[in-house]
Amino acid sequence: MDIKQSRGAFEKDTKGTRHVLHVPVHYEDTDFSGFVYHANYLKFAERGRSNFINLVGVTHQQLLAFEPQLAFVVGHMEMDFLSPGRVEDMLLVETVFTECRGARLTAEQRISRNGETLWQAHVLAAVVDLQGRPRRMPKDIAAQITPYLGASFLADKAGK
Known about the structure:
Blueprint: H1 3-6, E1 9-13, E2 16-24, H2 38-55, H3 60-64, E3 70-81, E4 90-101, E5 104-113, E6 116-129, H4 139-145
Antiparallel strand pairs: 1-2, 2-4, 3-6, 4-5, 5-6
């Protein structure tokens, strides 16, 4: 498997583009019960968002080359734990970015096993300088991300 394949892939349909990433659950990802430890869903989701951004051609080095230097940060996240993942499961991490405007980058993510949603989240990220102040996303970065935007895909918005 080459490095690009390990970062997942894009799937495009009438609603736009989503990134899919397969993540095996190892013993180290679980708690004493054999269930995925709750904080690891955040790690799996971060891999999905980071790999999505990287596959569209945006890198951390590119962000650091701006003056002032820039970074993406998560400013807000709403998540729901719906069912436990287990050791030796193969999970599917799906990510769709639904908005790219100003300093904001909005995403929805779902982690599932065999079609059953285990965890889902709505994520608001932002571009900031290295002092933590919000900055408008540079036009060339927005231009790299915008063609990959998609529509909301969370089934019931976690019942909210």
